[in-house]
Amino acid sequence: MERDVHQSFAEEFGTALAPSEATRDEFADAVLQGLARKPRSLPCRFFYDARGSELFEAITQLEEYYLTRVETALLADHGAAIAAEMGDAKVLVEFGSGSSRKTSLLLAALAAVDTYIPIDVSEESLAGAASWLEERHDGLAIRPLVADFTSIAALPLTARRRRKLGFFSGSTIGNLSHDEARSFLAHAARLLGKHSAFLVGVDLKKDPSILIPAYNDAQGVTAAFNLNLLHRIKRELGADIDVDGFAHDAVYDELHGRMEMYLVSRKRQLVRVRGRAFRFADGERIHTENSHKYSVAEFQALAESAGWRPARVWTDEDQLFSLHLLRRP
Ligand code: AVJ
Questions:
Q1: Which of 144, 173, 224 is nearest to 67 (CA)?
Q2: What is the pLDDT of residue 153?
Q3: For 10-46, what is each residue's pLDDT tens digit?
Q4: Which of 142, 209, 283, 326 is the most exposed place for a label (fewest CB within 10 A)?
């Protein structure tokens, strides 16, 4: 309900509005539910407050975190081929846009695009992205939406009846389960409409000896990113948590084909949030993120089951990352 109000505000005025109180309560509910559950878990979308977004940007600069570097190179190398496939798109819609740094490469290749709609839960990221892109792309209309990209109900009026290209980068789709990913792809197909296309960046399955350091780097930036979730709970919900009493862990689950991140209690301890107490055993974990990995064939089958036709796929020579162009028949 709240979200609809914010969305229509953005439609009317083309600006992002901070959904402060609604967001705070949603966060509190999710934290209380997640900590009460066994096994305990917290939704990864809450990583991205201002500090979390900053730490994620630092992760993208790490040697071990190949995903951003390889995807950026794919966009730079194949921009012309992407444009040849999708050169007449007028509106670029980006789901979970973050800082939009990679988007500039796409916009440079797509001459016909005059409107950019970034969708992100972080208002700070959207504001930063908008001013960064405005400086680089003259005359581009930017219409940011503060929203969880999985639940966005409608696009702004300016996008209606114009050919759209969706962009979902960084393998963020990997944070969804296979069922959630299929639902999201089907939802995006409806949102983007007939004759649209969807460019999706997907991390490939590979040896865990490459994956694990990408999620547990030597400098501890990913650890700080994971632990920031506890700092955020303290900051925003006034919780009583000894953050140093938790450690970061990242493991590869072969069966599900995914990286998993955990916060592990280093001792027996009590965590207090909004009048509720949660008793942790030594070594007890909070599951904070899944990052599913796909082979090219697995992702194409998933996309087809959601109503998309796989049109092209680009990968790097080391087969680390894939960029899929899907078409709506
Ligand atoms: C941006 C969500 C795709 O899952 O690889 C980075 C987030 N987590 N390091 C990912 C993340 C740990 C990242 N995504």
A1: 173
A2: 87
A3: 443 344 444 466 778 899 999 999 999 999 999 999 9
A4: 209
Residue type at position 152: I
Q: Which residue has the tokens 């979308």?
A: 45
Token readout for 38 is 């066994």
Q: What does the alpha-carbon distance between residue 260 and residue 249 come to, in Å, rounded to a whole number?
A: 8
Atom from ligand 1 closest to the CA of residue 214: 9
Averaged pLDDT for residues 230-254: 97
Residue 11 to residue 222: CA distance in whole angstroms: 36
Distance CA 266, CA 13 (A): 49
Dump strand ranges (E) for the chain. 40-41, 91-95, 115-120, 141-142, 145-146, 164-168, 197-203, 246-253, 258-265, 269-273, 276-280, 285-292, 309-315, 321-327
- The pocket around ligand 1, CB under 6 angstroms, is made up of 59, 67, 170-172, 174-175, 215, 222, 289, 291
193: left (phi over 0), alpha (psi -120 to 50) or beta: left
